[in-house]
Amino acid sequence: xxxxxxxxxxxxxxFGRLRAVDDLSLEISAGTSFGLxxxxxxxxxxxxxxxxxxxxxxSGNISCLGKPPxxxxxxxxxxxxxxxxxxxxxxxxxxxDFFARIYGLRDKKKRTQRVDEVIKLVDLYSKRxxxxxxxxxxxxxxVSLGCAIIHQPPLIFLDEPTVGxxxxxxxxxxxxxxxxxxxxxTIIVSSxxxxxxxxxxxxxxxxxxxxxxxxxxxxxxAATGTAEATMEDAFLYYIKRGEVKENAA
Length: 249
Ligand SMILES: Nc1ncnc2c1ncn2[C@@H]1O[C@H](COP(=O)(O)OP(=O)(O)OP(=O)(O)O)[C@@H](O)[C@H]1O
Ligand SMILES: [Mg+2]
Description:
By secondary structure, this protein is α/β, with parallel strands linked by helices. The chain has helices at 44-52, 92-102, 108-121, 137-149, 167-182, 194-199, 217-222, 231-248, and strands spanning 4-15, 18-29, 33-37, 59-64, 77-80, 155-159, 186-191, 202-207, 210-215. A hairpin with a 2-residue loop joins strand 1 (4-15) and strand 2.
């Protein structure tokens, strides 16, 4: 599928005097998994919040499924924030049901079915009646993922969804993300682990609010010129290359 899901053009966002997103442009194809990779403070969360419509850019344009990101687009969008935004006193089931209602799943029978389906998917069926405050960090992440995908949105933003997950769960999350893209959804995932990077079909390496490299994991590794280069080597290669350019300028 070659349709474009998201176009970002010359995007700028400032927190006061700090430029968090700096003249950033990207295109994300529909039905793919796109990774935003970069160190702490490189602008991943800010960029995601701009694409979801929670922040307004100082300048530049964003088009998500052909429209500017606005709350009226919310039903097409799933968003898993970096810090789970859940109701601690409500149970797993009540939290997911709450998001299902917000996203307009009105029919009670269908909603209950879908909530059950998602609870099983994130493997929390035995905890469905437990208050979220009593769950472990990784379990809260799973509830948060459930809330983001409850309405089967075509566009899903996941801000560091695998942080704090054990290796088995991380692999399960990725199996699930891959099944979502196979069924046509577009997934934007932020991470700083190169393990996540290797799972994405396309990646943008971010640094200082800018895209310093763009390509598939294989393309980015190949650019280092070393056959056995890892994703980590590729990232360091682009950082060094950027520093050489900055010093030369
Ligand atoms: N609410 C805020 N007010 C002021 N500055 C902010 C705010 N949120 C983020 N920043 C700054 O904007 C820059 C980008 O932050 P952002 O959270 O987008 O980075 P990130 O790549 O998501 O980092 P991390 O990997 O730690 O999640 C950083 O310099 C950060 O300090
Ligand atoms: Mg972040």
